[in-house]
Specification:
Helix content is about 10%, strand content about 35%. By secondary structure, the protein is mainly β.
């Protein structure tokens, strides 16, 4: 139910591995499905210019505010239905952002404790986006 309400799959990624043809293709595919290393924040945070990503990003039902500085934070706020269906503690959350690379950060999911990737990028048109939990979110002026 939570995945339905948050519009996420609960799956970290998709595997589209071409293992060719022949008698060993199934064995190669099974080998490729071996458990990958989970995404995690580095032991020592990377050096990154976090202030260039600061601002508000908004998508249907959710506002994400990136606050830069020495201790970068990501504030998630549910802005409409299904916000009323969410527990009070999930309507507004604040996360520490740990730099992994220049445009890649890690946040810890509150309930599971798993690390989630947060990616900042720009489209060829110059529009800035934040990508979290499988969803792209445009920056608002």
């Amino acid at each position: 139910m939570r995945h339905l309400l948050t519009h996420t799959t609960g799956v970290d990624g998709d595997v589209f591995t071409d293992t060719g043809r022949g008698d060993d293709c199934l064995a190669k595919y099974a080998e490729a499905l071996a458990e990958p290393e989970p995404f995690a924040a580095p032991a020592e945070p990377a050096s990154a210019d976090v202030d260039r990503h600061a601002g508000t990003y908004e998508r249907a039902g959710e506002r994400l505010e990136m606050v830069g500085g020495e201790r970068p934070r990501l504030r998630r706020t549910a802005t409409r239905a299904p916000a009323a269906l969410l527990p009070e503690s999930e309507r507004e959350q604040e996360h520490d952002l740990v730099p992994v690379e220049e445009d890649l950060f890690a946040v810890r999911a509150p309930r599971t404790g798993m690390w989630l990737p947060v990616t900042f990028y720009a489209l060829p048109t110059g529009e800035r986006y934040l990508h979290l939990a499988g969803r792209a979110t445009p920056k608002v002026p």
